[in-house]
Amino acid sequence: MSDNHAEHEEHIGIPGYLVIFLILVFGTIFTYFSSFWDLDSIFPGANTLLALAIAFTKMMFVILYFMHVRWSSKTVWLAAVAAFFWLAIMFAFTMQDYFTRISGVFSV
Amino acid sequence: MQEVSAISGNSVPADEPKLNYINNGHTLKSWLLTKDHKRIALMYLVSVSAFFLMGGIYAGFIRLELLTPASDLLETATYNKVFTQHGILMVFFFLIPAIPAILGNFLLPLMIGAKDLALPRINLLSLYIYWIGGIITLWALMQGGVDTGWTFYTPYSTTFSNSYVMAVGIGVFINGFSSILTGLNFIVSIHTMRAPGMTWFRLPLFVWAHYATSLVMILGTPVVAITILLVAIERFARIGIFDPAIGGDPILFQHLFWFYSHPAVYIMILPGMGVISEVIAGFSRKRIFGYEFVAFSSIAIAVFGFLVWGHHMFVSGQSIFAGLVFSFLSMVVAVPSAIKTFNWTATMYKGSISYDTPMLYAIGFLGLFLIGGLTGLFLGSVGLTVHLTDTYFVVAHFHYVMVGGQVIAYLAGIHYWWPKMTGRMYSEFWGKISAMLIFVGFNLTFFPQFILGYMGMPRRYASYPEELQVLNIFSTAGASVLGFGLVMPVVYLIHSLFYGKKAADNPWMHPGLEWRTSSPPPTENFKEMPVVTWEAYDFGEESGLDLEDARKREAVTI
Description:
The structure holds 2 protein chains of 2 kinds. Chain A is mainly α. Chain A has 2 domains: 72 residues; 36 residues. Chain A contains 4 helices and no strands. Chain B has 17 helices and no strands. The two termini of chain B are 27 Å apart. In chain B, 54% of the residues are buried. At the A-B interface, helix 4 of A face helix 9 and helix 11 of B.
């Protein structure tokens, strides 16, 4: 397997990890302040969508750098992608309920 | 073939090796800090059996209460706690870990020809996590218990229940990590630790079943852990997730809970199917019919099992469209299970069947799982289920799958591999009596519940109309027989440890790798690295596995 400690240090190093950490902190602060903006006036659920987009970006940084997936073998990539696929199944099948109710949290 | 002569030469018990995994260290420390998968499996056996006993005692109280129409043995609030705690202990602390943690842990490295699992320390950690989760849960039960039902449905669990919801939730949450680590260990071991020549399609179907189970454990268990965490967050911080009064949605809990808990049914039954494949092939002395189909049906069950959870929610307020989709997919998931059942039956066809105790259990499994599976289709039908939801029909259905399927398979497996695990033979006579008593007791307990449910008796009530008493008396009487039948193996298996005949290395004359080492195996499993040169379930006479011949030789020797 290609992911050993020395190799990560070559790729990103301690300063690199600190940058990623700061990005995550910035994302958290940004999520907090964005919740005060009235984006729902653009379309319902826009605030939630923005918060989820920030969370997704933060998650990608964690997976790729902190969890070393970026430098890992194809098998590890497959496992990571499979986990997302399963998450997508959970969201899709749950949302098919909400989107097709007569009234529900996403109804206008 | 060198390996073959080793088998036939061992049909008569040899002297026990000086060191095996049991006598290799006698101190408490040597057990508590062991990294040997076999010792860990034995500690799981004791722990899981203790939880099974506790869950069984709760079941006894439920049946005693339902002997009469009035709520006269237990107060209704106590009854709520009793059935909840029966469910929690049985599902999370017995059904889920039983086969993977005991038989899987013990056998998987032996079956693939490895010295141990890939991550032995993680394996020990999973046992400790199981103990910690179990102790927290038991502590909560002793403090006053929980009354939400094992499903922890919101908003009752988040808003109204004054019982120890969070303490039990934490216990279950922690226990989930034990499951995840076991699954992780199995997947890594199967990928990386197979002996030379042990190709994917030479793996025993028990291993395939555990591979599929491990996928479900890893992909599903984190979701229920997070769900329980969300319940905690709502209870403590009043953040609206599931409570509509503060902006949440209670049906979201059901989606998240069943996303794990329906696949968890397959965590429980898939390893049992693996056991049944081994036992039926072994005692029919035939290569399993359609090996590849049975192997891939395990994977198909694991995958499709994730797409059907909404059939638990047809009357919950879920949309009709979602109900239709989930109903259709529920019919689809029945197909791989049916493939397995047909293939097991076809394996027995023209097989040289011997009715030893494990085989009696396996034949019982076929009938009971068939009934459990087919009644599942009733409940998966979006129209019929309106009448049957939350009735005793549901209770009967899942007990036919969980007890008639998983528990019977577990007992088949324990009896089948007991000689390997302990080096001792148990009494076949009492084994057969017990298997038949359990089969009769089980049917007497749960078949009347199908009728009760169809007649409209709801589950989770301590009282019922008088006209339903006769069937309830049948059910309670059956539970007594079932309970007696389940106690019997405890007695004669423990008896066998001290007085049982020494087991041969391969008492059933079966070809699997686990039978090609001593009974009980040495700590390192095999004296030499095994090299696999035969196909799975190769019962050919040229392999030296002629059972009748071996028995004749054994008789002459004695």
